[in-house]
TrEMBL record:
This is Amidohydrolase. The Mn(2+) ion enhances activity. InterPro entries: Amidohydrolase, Bact_exopeptidase_dim_dom, EF_Hand_1_Ca_BS, Peptidase_M20, Peptidase_M20_dimer. It comes from Gordonia asplenii. Keywords: Hydrolase, Manganese, Metal-binding. Mn(2+) binds at residues 97, 99, 132, 158, 353. Coiled coil: none annotated. One of its GO terms (biological process) is diaminopimelate biosynthetic process. The keyword Manganese applies. Its cofactor is Mn(2+).
């Protein structure tokens, strides 16, 4: 493998993108900067894939398998708190999940692969829009990503604060949770607070519903299954002497098992219906299935772990890490082709989606090296 990429340039790229964060499907400047960077490296660049997505193709010296490597590009609607020299210049928008760093690592891998002297196949670097809840992966898939570029296998990586910087963790099977949205509207006639028997009570019904939903994970699912149901919003009423006619509850359900995901949806539906009956109110549920579980193909996960051990040393690799209840639209790629998604430690510091968070520049090099080596190993193994 070739030497490390130009880390000073990658760091400068990362800081530039961090200073100019863009929300889902609005990553226009980010995409332009990435496309220019890739062209400079000698990759064949296609823009506008699935909206703002950018794809770079790096061809080996002869024909062979085509491996995809993916980074996400979008930022979050968060106000950055720390006065960094490269702090966000876009008010209320922040790279608080490290996607700026993911792009830097993938550009570093692209640089190493463009400089690689000989390999029999192709590497497609995929810069995806809108990971944060808007399913940019689906937009790219719907735009023909896999067929247009011939991608047979795909890998991705996410930084994790709290894991030592540069350590790598992966597992065969479910690495990340499914995530679904619950949106519940409770309705009753409403009326004077002195006459609940005429008005109905959406607040008491809603309170019972919140409590009953907590029994899904605590009492109904197999305790060995990791899952969470959280009600995050409960809005009802305007004053002290009126029973309101509506209450709205919103929340999320996540789990590390496709079967449990179906069970949770069924139980939420049943509990809404039984609460309506018990309280004499109407309960309307919208249960929206968002991202599926991110399930690593075992052979690809083993390959990622083996390459990680080569790059950072076996003592810094967890080849059977726990899955976590975060979700990723990388899951949609893995529903169509084999691949794996890995974690890379970001070191100490604030968690992702926190206003104090920052990506750790010290892991750009190791992340780049890992991704480039993984693509070449996958090419060699599939040949
Ligand atoms: Zn995120
Ligand atoms: Zn993220």
């Amino acid at each position: 493998m070739t030497s490390l990429p130009d880390l000073d340039r990658l760091r400068a790229f990362r800081h530039d993108v961090h200073a100019h964060p863009e929300l889902a499907f609005a990553e226009h400047r980010t995409a332009d900067v990435i496309a220019d960077y890739l062209r400079g490296l000698g990759a064949e660049v296609t823009t506008g894939v699935g909206g703002t997505g950018v794809v770079g193709v790096i061809r080996g010296t002869s024909a062979g398998p085509t491996i995809g490597l993916r980074a996400d590009m979008d930022a979050l609607p968060i106000v950055e708190r720390q006065p960094r020299p490269y702090a966000s210049t876009s008010s209320g928008v922040m790279h608080a999940c490290g996607h700026d760093g993911h792009c830097a690592m993938l550009l570093g891998a692209a640089e190493m692969l463009c400089a690689a002297t000989e390999f029999a196949g192709n590497v497609v670097v995929v810069f995806q829009p809108a990971e944060e809840g808007a399913a940019g992966a689906v937009a790219m898939l719907d735009d023909g990503l896999l067929a247009r570029f011939g991608i047979e296998e795909i890998y991705g990586i996410h930084n994790i604060p709290g894991i030592d910087a540069g350590d790598i963790a992966v597992r065969a099977g479910t690495q990340l949770a499914s995530f679904d949205d619950l949106d519940i509207t409770i309705t009753a006639p409403g009326g004077h607070a002195m006459a609940p028997h005429l008005a109905g009570d959406v607040i008491v019904a809603g309170s019972a519903l919140v409590t009953a939903l907590q029994t899904i994970v605590a009492r109904r699912l197999d305790p060995a299954v990791r899952a969470v149901v959280s009600i995050t919003q409960f809005v009802a009423g305007d004053t002290n002497n009126v029973l309101p006619p509506t209450a709205r509850l919103r929340g999320t359900a996540r789990c590390l098992s496709a079967d449990a995901r179906d069970e949770i949806q069924r139980m939420v539906t049943d509990i809404c219906a039984s609460t309506a009956t018990a309280h004499g109110v109407d309960v309307a549920l919208t249960y929206e299935r968002r991202y599926p579980c991110t399930v690593n193909e075992p052979g690809c996960a083993a390959r990622a772990a083996a390459v990680a051990a080569d790059v950072v040393g076996a003592d810094r690799v967890d080849a059977n890490c726990d899955g976590i209840l975060a979700a990723e639209d990388f899951a949609f790629f893995l529903q169509q082709i084999p691949g794996a998604y890995a974690f890379i430690g970001n070191g100490a510091g604030a968690p992702v989606h926190n206003p104090d968070y920052d990506f750790n520049d010290d892991i750009i090099g190791v992340g780049a090296k890992f991704l480039a080596a993984l693509a070449l190993r996958a090419i060699a193994d599939r040949a």
